Amino acid sequence: GANYLRHDYTGLTFPVTDSYNDVTYAGYSENKPYTQGRADHFALSTGLGTNIWLTKNFGLGIQGDYVSTPVDKSRLANFWQASASLNFRFGNRDKDKDGVLDKDDLCSETPGLPEFQGCPDTDGDGVPDKDDNCPEVAGPVENNGCPWPDTDKDGVLDKDDACVDVAGPAENNGCPWPDTDNDGVLDKDDKCPNVPGLPEYKGCPKPQEAYAVEATGALK
């Protein structure tokens, strides 16, 4: 950082010497023109430090700096400094003790999770209770935290079921297989879905050849 530094040499009765540049501040004989009686300096501070927080509101700090005066070509006013500090935070309350400060907590009266800005997720479904229509039962975000229903109990969720009120297999999108000709053979297995037939003929009527075979057998 940058700062302003003032030195007052007017009360000194002995020479002030810069051992680096052999410049004497005597009051002021033999002084270099650019340092004659200089008491004011623009100072540049460079350093490194760290803060160690022992609790949420209390911590320790340490820092080391080198303070230089770039405008003053002598290095009389340059120095190293080290500091230690006690750090306190004020105003950062956490009423529900969930680790999320009240100023950032959308549910400051109820313990919650940091990823939901301090709000709870009771059923653990990834939808915070404040946005969950079913906070006690896990469900997907797409259904506002509620499980998808299965009205007809056929194992096909309503969102995927083309016949939500009638049980049917998943292979037919939750709808029962039709039997258009009502012959007891489902259309998916019926070779003649529009004509009543027999199961042994895959839903088709008994062929004429079968009648002929039966008649021949009866005559023997």
Topology:
Blueprint: E1 2-6, E2 16-18, E3 23-25, E4 40-53, E5 58-68, E6 79-88, H1 208-219
Antiparallel strand pairs: 1-4, 2-3, 4-5, 5-6
What labels would you give this structure?
single chain; 220 residues; mainly beta; 3 domains; 4-stranded antiparallel beta sheet; two-stranded antiparallel ribbon; 1 helix; 5% helix; signal; EF_Hand_1_Ca_BS; Thrombospondin_3-like_rpt
Précis, in short:
With 220 residues, the chain is mainly β. The chain has one helix at residues 208-219; strands spanning 2-6, 16-18, 23-25, 40-53, 58-68, 79-88. Residues 25-37 have low confidence and may be disordered.
Order of strands, widest sheet: 1-4-5-6
Cα-atom Rg, whole angstroms?
45 Å
- Structural class, by secondary structure, is mainly beta
- How many beta-strand segments? 6
Number of domains: 3
Q: Describe the largest sheet.
A: 4 strands, antiparallel
Q: DSSP strand (E) fraction? A: 15-25%
- In round numbers, the mean pLDDT is 83
Which stretches are poorly predicted, pLDDT < 50 over at least 5 residues?
25-37
Helix content: under 10%
> Oligomeric status of the shown chains?
single chain
Kindly, what is the distance between the CA atoms of the first and last residues, rounded to a whole number of angstroms? 120 Å
What is the number of helices?
Answer: 1
